[in-house]
Specification:
Length: 229
């Protein structure tokens, strides 16, 4: 399950300024749709509506045909995972940072998620140079390592729906490629909305929606859109 539909969605943060103006698209269960467009187009607003940080002004958002306004916050949060551009870690070990979002997980499950994200070697460390209880400095994580923590979180939580919001855009080219490959693996079989600036980063999407000023300007497969320029 987990198909996501935006149906004629209009949205405004302030009544006098429409941000989304009649957005309709579907992410079939298990498929990946990329939303591409310039900064300010309304891409992240789509993800905020899916989480119900805000409600649509008109139209509706559904999961498996059910209006998300009829779904509890708890089930919405457990159904949706997100990897943001910059993963913020809190001052506790990587272990607890991975377990965030699924506090019921066993230690073995957390370690297995860390192993799959290839960060098993620093799972007990503290992030970001925080002082450890014994007075040593914690790890200074690179951008790529922080995204691996976010990936481990997602593997552990295993949500049917995944949002990747510019998840590689803060990384250098080599790290971007590496993390993108990990994200592709994690997205496999999940209903995935990828938010990106550039077409070149979303080659594998089943469909690409080009958003401009709150409207869908173009849509299609990667090859079709590249052809049109
Ligand atoms: P994108 O992700 O495509 O860069 P956003 O969805 O973040 O675009 O933002 C779309 C528009 O909504 C922008 O003009 C932005 O300034 C405005 N916006 C975003 N968040 C808020 C907010 N909380 N209050 C008012 N306006 C906002
Ligand atoms: P908590 O449930 O612990 O209070 P949050 O309310 O911060 O956590 O976030 C709930 C979920 O929403 C998390 O999966 C988080 O990654 C995601 N999230 C947080 N901020 C944003 C955002 N600006 N846009 C979309 N998703 C977000």
């Amino acid at each position: 399950g987990g198909s996501v539909r935006f149906e004629d969605v209009h949205f405004a943060y302030d009544p006098d300024r429409q941000i989304l103006k009649g957005i309709t698209f579907e992410i079939p269960a298990g498929k990946t749709v990329a939303v591409v467009g310039p900064s300010g187009a309304g891409k992240s607003t789509l993800s905020r509506l899916l989480f119900r940080f805000y409600d649509v002004t008109s139209g509706r958002v559904t999961i498996d045909g059910q209006d998300i306004r009829d779904v509890t916050q708890e089930s919405l949060r457990s159904a949706i995972g997100m990897v943001p551009q910059d993963t913020v870690l809190f001052n506790d070990s990587i272990f607890y940072n991975i377990r965030y979002g699924r506090p019921d997980a066993t230690a073995d499950e957390v370690r297995e998620a860390a192993r799959q994200a290839r960060i098993a070697h620093f799972v007990e460390s503290l992030p970001n140079g925080y002082d450890t209880p014994v007075g040593e400095r914690g790890l200074k994580l690179s951008g790529g390592e922080k995204q691996r923590v976010a990936i481990a979180r997602t593997i552990l939580k295993s949500p049917p729906i995944l949002i990747l919001d510019e998840a590689t855009s803060a990384l250098d080219t080599n790290t971007e490629r590496e993390i993108q490959a990990e994200l592709d693996r994690v997205a496999e079989g999940r209903t995935t909305m990828v938010i990106a600036h550039r077409l070149s980063t979303v080659v594998n999407a089943d469909e690409i929606i080009v958003l401009e000023k709150g409207r869908i300007a173009e849509r299609g497969a990667h090859a079709e859109l590249i052809e049109k320029g």
